[in-house]
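Contributing new records

If you add data, match the layout below exactly. Sequence lines come first and carry their own label; structure lines follow with theirs. Keep one chain per record. Anything else will be rejected by the validation script.
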Amino acid sequence: MAYYILRRIFLFFFVVFSITVFAFSLSYLFPGEPLSNLSGYQTIEYADIEFLEQKYNINDSVITQYFTYLGHVLNGDLGLSFSSQTPVFDEILRFLPATFELSFYALLVSMFVGVPIGIIAASKHNKFPDYLIKYSTLIGYSMPIFWWALLLIMLFCLHLGWLPMSGRISLLYEIPAKTGFMIPDILLADVGYRHEALLDALKHLLLPTVILATFPTTVLIRFTRDSMLEVLETQYIKTARAKGLSRMQVLFRHGLRNALLPVIRQIGLQFSTLITLAMLTEVIFSWPGIGRWLVDSIYQRDFPAIQGGLLAVSSFVIIASILADSVHSILNPLTRKRNHG
């Protein structure tokens, strides 16, 4: 187990090293001076040139510049944003909770909808419910997220008027930002309109969550179904049936426990997928998360923000993937043996 963990740690540092090398190279690939792209100063005064050159070792070799850049990244110094002239690291901390909140609720919806439906599909194998679920998930898996979002916006926002179509909360409610997560901030806020603000925030959250959860839900349904079918064909399940146990006892007492092991890993991997899919969802619904901020930075040619956003999103995707793989390996020792082999 220790050897397995060391391999994952080495993999993590290798991937992070590759990402930082790519982010550093963008300073030279982007238009403009590398010193401006690293520091975030679009117009550098003559008196500050020498200070910034020493800070980033711009006159030394490229390897020395990279390790200097890496030291700044580890210290949280990602330069200044071209558009706002505020530290990029502070902007990432400001926008990241909104993305995490949306992705977390979408993951909960995917778990509580995808896993039970996958079990139902496996229990009704080669019957009408199985065919209906299988073809429905195929449609959901193939559907472009932006097209699906526009359809629901036209129906529930424009035609029916049930849900708002942008933002996290209405401008009528002023909620102090304590954690950065809207629902906990409303619950912690000492205001008289807490219940109204909570209901309004849930209305704003509902449609983006459903849109974002569509793809991972279809993945979990198909993955749970295939895992259950594989377990139900094993010898110990056939033995349990031969002993006279009912179908529900075999399904939930013996089959579900082992079938959920690979599903747990897939749930963790879907969280990293949600982080990337949230970028498009945030743009459609004007959700103030890191995805929308990163897209706006691309339009504004804010090169330091693009570098910092790339590092932040990539790091969290890598961490989520490695944690999911590690948890799955802890729960399933056979996986460690296969990976070692």
